[in-house]
Design brief:
The complex is a heterodimer of chains A (about 110) and B (about 110).
Chain A lengths: L3 E4 L2 E4 L5 E7 L5 E7 L5 E8 L2 E5 L6 E7 L2 E6 L8 E8 L6 E3 L3 E5 L1
Parallel strand pairs in A: 2-11
Antiparallel strand pairs in A: 1-3, 3-8, 4-5, 4-9, 5-6, 7-8, 9-10, 9-11
Chain B lengths: L2 E4 L4 E4 L4 E3 L1 E4 L5 E7 L5 E7 L5 E4 L2 E4 L9 E3 L8 E8 L6 E3 L3 E6 L1
Parallel strand pairs in B: 2-12
Antiparallel strand pairs in B: 1-4, 3-9, 5-6, 5-10, 7-8, 8-9, 10-11, 10-12
The chains are: A mainly beta (about 110), B mainly beta (about 110).
Chain lengths: ~110, ~110
């Protein structure tokens, strides 16, 4: 059983389109995250949800909107995609300060 | 705010060489510290962690000691293998455990 699963694994789309990435965790963790990894492997947090409530919203364009229907799911919707949105997006979950994160395998988004 | 600085790569070593990847941090309070590893095409996996000063985290022959006096958490391995080739990330968790802040990653290449 995959602990944190995200779909799709690859996403190629044209500029201006709207797309969604889904994430689900079966670990019973309370907190979920979206991170963006750029081409230089730098990881930056985008959003954090704890029990369906948004607790971190870093400087991210309004075109990115997270949705957490329950604490096991955190989806990411992106409107009006731009070339600069091309990156690998990772979902992760955690329980408590000391537990560390469990990451999904990533979604490689390519905007053409 | 919190920040993590790690040595830039790539680090290229021959098999069985000794590995050190430096990591220093800036944080308020008492963060937890982590090393994550990312193999090509995969998500991040927790390698080891330390939750308080002088703790030593270890796993798969890797180890790192939480040094509060030097604000460091250097990763070491006595004898690297080709299979250790990956990108290594140092990270810290804020006091509330709401967010992991990552260093820029260090690519390790081990040659036979």
């Amino acid at each position: 059983d995959t602990a944190v699963s995200q779909t799709p694994k690859y996403l190629v789309t044209q500029m201006g389109n709207d797309k969604s990435i889904k994430c689900e965790q079966n670990l019973g963790h309370d907190t979920m995250y979206w991170y963006k990894q750029d081409s230089k492997k730098f990881l930056k947090i985008m959003f954090s949800y704890n029990n369906k409530e948004l607790i971190i919203n870093e400087t991210v364009p309004n075109r990115f909107s997270p949705k957490s229907p329950d604490k096991a799911h955190l989806n990411l919707h992106i409107n009006s995609l731009e070339l600069g949105d091309s990156a690998v997006y990772f979902c992760a979950s955690s329980q408590g300060k000391h537990g560390g994160y469990t990451f999904g395998s990533g979604t490689r988004l390519t905007v053409v | 705010g919190n920040s993590v600085t790690q040595m830039e790569g790539p680090v290229t070593l021959s098999e069985e060489a000794f590995l050190t990847i430096n990591c220093t941090y800036t944080a308020t309070g008492y963060p937890s510290l982590f090393w994550y590893v990312q193999y090509p095409g995969e998500g991040l996996q927790l390698l080891l962690k330390a939750t308080k000063a002088d703790d030593k985290g270890s796993n798969k022959g890797f180890e790192a000691t939480y040094r509060k006096e030097t604000t460091s958490f250097h990763l070491e391995k006595g004898s690297v293998q080709v299979s250790d080739s990956a990108v290594y990330f140092c990270a810290l968790s804020d006091n509330a455990g709401n967010m992991l802040t990552f260093g820029g990653g260090t690519r390790l290449m081990v040659k036979p």
